[in-house]
């Protein structure tokens, strides 16, 4: 029972180029998604991706907060170090993976049990954002992760901005795969249909806000936190 990651191979001459790239799903190819709106929806629904690169001959994978802005994924890190910056400096190809788990699929055998998911891997070379665009890029990252928060807190100092490097990865070479179906079953499959089979959807929700120890008692919640934890439908669900 696994999430089947988007394994891929270059598309032969004359084949389609999903999302502008040249990759095709090899296993369970019918699950490949080539719709750009679906890709944007996946990237916009999650908050964390995994950035992978080979650094000094060793594979490295790091989870990172990110934001999609137009045709790029933005990530950031310290100018003082980090494999992402080194990968950017050398022009090495990296991979950035994002996965949304939508539910568990309970079949009548463990072999047929599965997961419903949406998964994408972006390949390319990280590009440092121009210093003149750093402020806007950091604002876009902050607004994606904590909508409305930048307007409630002090501006970043020049020292803080100088200590932060923003990188971007263009959405030119992407492969996406998804499963959104019930349990595999057929009337004549020989299984005991008295055993329950189906899907358990996965929902995520924000918890009750917890103030820091130095926040005075009774301090009202800022609008950004209230909007995040108490949306109009009252669900507290993640986007």
Describe the structure.
It is a single chain. This protein is of the alpha+beta class. 18% of the residues lie in helices and 33% in strands. It has five helices and 13 strands. It has helices spanning 36-45, 83-90, 134-145, 158-162, 223-229; strands at 8-10, 23-25, 32-33, 48-55, 58-65, 67-69, 72-78, 93-106, 114-125, 127-128, 164-170, 173-179, 198-201.
List the helices and strands and how they pair.
Layout: E1 8-10, E2 23-25, E3 32-33, H1 36-45, E4 48-55, E5 58-65, E6 67-69, E7 72-78, H2 83-90, E8 93-106, E9 114-125, E10 127-128, H3 134-145, H4 158-162, E11 164-170, E12 173-179, E13 198-201, H5 223-229
Antiparallel strand pairs: 1-2, 3-12, 4-5, 4-8, 6-7, 7-11, 8-9, 8-13, 9-12, 10-11
Helical content class: 10-25%
From the spread of the alpha carbons, the general shape counts as globular
Strand residues, percent: 25-35%
The secondary structure category is alpha+beta
Number of helices: 5
Measured distance between first and last alpha carbons: 26 Å
Mean pLDDT: 87
TL;DR of this structure?
Helices cover 18% and strands 33% of the residues. The protein has helices spanning 36-45, 83-90, 134-145, 158-162, 223-229, and strands at residues 8-10, 23-25, 32-33, 48-55, 58-65, 67-69, 72-78, 93-106, 114-125, 127-128, 164-170, 173-179, 198-201.
């Amino acid at each position: 029972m696994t999430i089947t990651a988007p394994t891929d191979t270059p598309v032969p001459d004359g084949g389609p180029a999903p999302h502008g790239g040249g990759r095709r799903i090899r296993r369970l190819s019918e699950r490949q998604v080539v719709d750009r709106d679906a890709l944007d929806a996946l990237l916009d629904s999650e908050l964390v991706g995994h950035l992978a690169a080979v650094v000094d001959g060793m594979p490295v994978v790091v989870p990172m907060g990110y934001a999609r802005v137009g045709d790029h994924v933005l990530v950031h890190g310290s100018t003082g170090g980090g494999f992402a910056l080194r990968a950017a400096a050398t022009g090495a190809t990296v991979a950035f993976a994002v996965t949304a788990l939508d539910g568990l699929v309970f079949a009548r055998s463990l072999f047929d049990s599965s997961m419903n998911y949406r998964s994408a891997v972006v390949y390319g070379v990280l590009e440092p954002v121009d210093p003149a665009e750093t402020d806007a890029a950091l604002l876009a990252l902050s607004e994606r992760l904590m909508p409305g928060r930048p307007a409630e807190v002090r501006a970043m100092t020049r020292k803080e901005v100088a200590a932060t490097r923003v990188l971007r990865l263009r959405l030119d070479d992407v492969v996406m795969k998804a499963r959104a179906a019930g349990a595999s079953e057929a009337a004549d499959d020989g299984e005991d249909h008295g055993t329950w089979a189906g899907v358990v959807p996965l929902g995520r929700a924000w918890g009750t806000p917890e103030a820091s120890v130095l926040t005075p008692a009774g301090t009202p919640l800022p609008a950004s936190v209230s909007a995040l934890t108490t949306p109009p439908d009252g669900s507290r669900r993640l986007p």
